[in-house]
Structure formats: C-alpha cells, structure tokens
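Morning!

This is the sequence you dropped in the shared folder:
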Amino acid sequence: MNKTVRSARSRSDAPPSVLWRVLRTAHELEARLETALAQIGLSLAKVGVLRALAEAEEPLTLSDVAERVRCVRSNITQLVDRLEADGLVRRVNDPHDRRIRRASLTPTGRSSCTEGIRVMAIQERETASALSPVDAVALARALGHLAP
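The structure's back. Tokens below.
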C-alpha cells in the first residue's frame, strides 16, 4: 500500500473532529426545524422577525428589527416584504416622523408567531429527548464554552 492510500485511510478512520460534528449536527437540526416550520408556512428567519415584533409590543423600524435579530438591514427588508405579502406584518408610519416606516404585526402575524414558537418548542423537546438529562446538561455546558 502506498503512502497516499495509507494516509487517506488513516484520516478516514479517524473520528470526526469536534468542529465538524458540531457543524454537521447544527445543520441537521436546523434542517429539521426549517422543515417543521415550513409545514405552517414559516421559516426560522420569519419566526425571528415575528418574535422580535411581538416582544417589542410596538411597531419597530427595520433597523431596530435587524438589530434585534442580528441580521443585516437589507435581509430584514426582504423578510418584511415577504411577511407583508403573507399578511403577517404591515408597514405603518412613525407617529413622530413621517419619513420613517415601521413594521407592525397583524393579528394573523401574532397568531403565526405563536404557532411558530409552538413548533420550535416541539422541536426543542424532540431534540432534548434524544439525550439523557445528564447529557443534555453537559452538552449545553460544553456548547456554552464554544460560543458564550
């Protein structure tokens, strides 16, 4: 067996790195969550915007929404456009400055937010149930060290 084949084999026999396992697992869990949310016409990004608006309890500027969901404003503009087309958000004038537009939840948007959070909670329980309570605590602690 030549060195190249031996080297490739020893690398493929090695356990995956922590980084790759975390990334692969995160990708899989995100895909499961996106699939579950898609069944109710939402996505993780849309739920994030709806949740930010619901928690604010008042219309927010798109810059404020972007800051709260930690996303660039251009992406928020596109998300709000889609949410508005879906009837979940409406744009309203700022009461103090007519040049500023704010995003506000519609009653349907508030219901959709509640439903999205419910779906996410189900996914949380399903994910947690794959681990023993001790493993769940250890994993949460370990992940906290990676990205505090």
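Headline: The mean pLDDT is 89.

More detail when I'm at my desk.
O.
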